[in-house]
Amino acid sequence: MRPLIGISCCIKSFGAFAMPNHAASDHYIRVVLGPVGGIPVLIPAAGEDVVAELLPRLDGLMLTGSRSNVQPALYSGPPHLEGTPEDAQRDATTLPLTRAALAAGVPLLAICRGFQELNVALGGSLDQRIQDLPGRMDHSTPADQSLPKVRTGKAHAVRVATDGALARLWSGLPWDPAAVPVNSLHNQGVARAAPRLLPEAWAPDGTVEGARIEGAAGFALGVQWHPEYDWQTDRLSRRLFEAFGAAAMQHAASRDAMAHPGLAAIAAE
Length: 269
Hints:
The chain has helices at residues 26-36, 51-54, 88-104, 113-121, 165-169, 235-259, 261-268; strands at residues 4-8, 10-14, 19-23, 39-43, 60-63, 108-111, 126-127, 156-160, 180-182, 189-190, 197-202, 208-213, 220-223. With 269 residues, the chain is α/β, with parallel strands linked by helices. The chain has a single domain (4-132, 154-268), classed as Rossmann fold (3-Layer(aba) Sandwich). Strands 4-1-5-6-13-12-11-8-9 form a nine-stranded mixed beta sheet, with helices on both faces. Strands 2-3 form a two-stranded antiparallel ribbon. Strand 2 (10-14) and strand 3 (19-23) form a beta hairpin. The chain starts with a strand and ends with a helix.
């Protein structure tokens, strides 16, 4: 059986009456059905109450990107500029879910906003508008959304530590650790890294672009870019999802063995 992969949802308004919906981009559904090799399970932004009962049934957790930003009060930051989108219900769900997943050894892959959530959940802080800081690049989504390949186009290169988790999972592929090309669609980023967040990829301006979690019992990686947009053409993106899927499959096998010890004993004979 394929592993069950939890996908974090946002609260978004749709339709003529702007009704709130729990939503995740189709890109995440497709990547779970594709190289991850799992079954997508949408996690509603329903608060901490869903965490304890849902997490034991999951084999992996994917924290998704979003237009909204993590609430500054959660990392003792200054208020956002007026008009900055927030999603309090998502924050109330994903931060405790992240901590619980890491504690339980559930494989975790955090992408863009999810990467920022991962840092905040473990005690780190965020820069809110990187493009406004001295000496920093503009990492945000281009204002002209009609530009070709606005999501899949490579915006800049990142430098990747050669002794980190990313380097290990990309072993055997043709790539240059000094210049891995990535897309860039974010305003916020890691300011103070959480004690357990170990950066291992950086943009030319020093922005943290990837990290692993120290002491994690299972797969636990985060990236600031969006590999879900180009996994069909980018081998590094695809390998990232394949590695996450393999970890989720292993977790699923362990979970099944614990739930059905008799079957596991028969299979081992």
